Amino acid sequence: MHAPALDHHRFTRGTPKEQRAYAAELIQALKAHSLVKIVNHGLDDPTIEELFTRMQQFFALPRHRQQEVEHLASDNPQRGWSAVGVEQTSGLYSRETGRPVDELKDAKEHYDIGPPDDAQFQNQWLNNDVLPGWQSFMEDYWYKCQDVALSVISVIEMGLNVPQGTIQDLCHPAASEVRLNHYPAIHSSDISDGSTARIWPHTDFGIITLLLTDDVGGLEFEESHNSGKFLPIPQGAKNELIINVADTLERWTNGTLKAGMHRVMQPVSTNLGEKTLIQERWSVPYLFKARRDALVGALPEFVTPQVPSAYDSITALDFQLRRQHQVYTNAQLARQ
Asked: What's the CATH number of domain 5-334, 3.30.390.10, 1.10.10.10, 2.60.120.330, 3.40.50.150?
């Protein structure tokens, strides 16, 4: 799949005419593919390099240290570390697979970070002497991503011809999350037998996702008009930011923009011999979300007598809890 890479400076530094042209191109890409790539977005190369270095530091810690900040399976937004296989994304679309969720495993572990000032769902941090400066860096990175996301939303508002603030005003106070993903090395036979994926097909819960990845590959998006056919996303420069539409934006726009179904499998270059070891993979999505009491049914701007709302009107938090429940088995939830 060819995902165009657009220069975000055309919006942040451009003339009004250049901004409108950029917004139109970005919306065109989101309508066609549910994703777009941008450069010159505001996350500089040193920040990105340090992000990946610090992420790897956490996942290299002894297991007992990671367990000090372990997230226990629940409907609540995730905070802290989740071990390999705890989250089961196959549950989001288990009806499509026709197989029980506990037969389909995710081969990933992750660490989730919410708003630094979140009193309702507090972050979990190791002591500073374990990973000096780690918490302060991750909190600063969270704020940088929030600024980038709001800038992208401003472009989307322009491209959709709705007043500035229509979407942005529904994002304060913030509820967005950074996720640090580690996909350990895995034998290709574990994926090819159909019981394990690095992450199963799913859409994200929020408004948009800002994604940074390493160069290992394996990310695939479903073709917008060809259900069930997934195409690999070519690896670009490490500072290319992949932006995909998530569930809330699809709901707000009443389906004008569709959430991008995606998964992580083996890289297309991998020889699927039984003994082939697929190298570990790293990625960092920023899951940009609505404020928790915002309603996530269709916005009035996208509803007409001819096109009624296709989505129920519930709060963003209730919608997340509904979806969150699906990534754990009943047995996992019963233990809490």
From this structure: 2.60.120.330
